[in-house]
Amino acid sequence: MAISSAPCYTGVAFYSGSALLNLALKMNPVVAQPGYGARGATASSWQTDVFDCCDDLGVCLCGTFFPLCLSCQIASDMDECCLCGGSVAMRTLYRTRYGIPGSICDDYLCLMCCPNCTLCQLKRDIDKRRAMNAF
After folding, report:
1. Exposed site from 28, 62, 103, 128, fewest CB < 10 Å?
2. pTM (2 decimals)?
3. On the CB side of 57, how many CA atoms lie within 13 Å of its CA?
4. pLDDT digit string (tens) for 45-84?
5. In whole angstroms, what is the distance from residue 15 CA to residue 13 CA?
6. Spans of the chain below 50 pLDDT
7. Dist. CA 128–CA 135, nearest whole Å
8. Which helix (H) or strand (E) holds 6?
9. Contact at 8 Å (CB) between 46 and 128?
């Protein structure tokens, strides 16, 4: 029995260098991941600063003496669950929903350094956007 020295390739296509380059140029690679959500957030900013607590005296008093009630009211406004410790998640969700620049780290530090003022800022922002029919 004679053994053939010719290689046996079945189902494999071989391309020359120029044919391979032409094939690669015809492909359209995906260069961006698809987004999520029904609408894209446009760039925005907070309607008030963190320490503008006296802009709305009612919110300021509620945030000072009843911060848990204010947190639950904010959660209700955002159709979220009123869960202890969810303030960072709510602030991050709100910030990304309205295209407000920042990071989760910024949200965490704001809530750890001055939680009452940060909750008041979020409530004032919700109220102002609601008044502009933008909430």
Report:
1. 28
2. 0.67
3. 0
4. 999 999 998 889 999 999 999 999 999 999 999 998 887 7
5. 7
6. 36-39
7. 9
8. none
9. no
C-alpha torsion angle, residues 100, 47, 66, 73 (rounded to 10) = -70
**H or E segment and range at residue 22:** helix 17-26
Q: Does residue 110 fall inside a structural domain?
A: yes
CB atoms within 10 A of CB 18: 8
Alpha-carbon gap, residue 53 to 20, rounded angstroms: 65
Single-letter residue type at 98: Y
* Nearest residue to 122 (alpha-carbon basis) of 84, 82, 66, 78: 78
Q: How many domains does the chain have?
A: 1
| Domain that includes residue 107, residue range | 53-131
What token pair was written down for 115?
């939680």
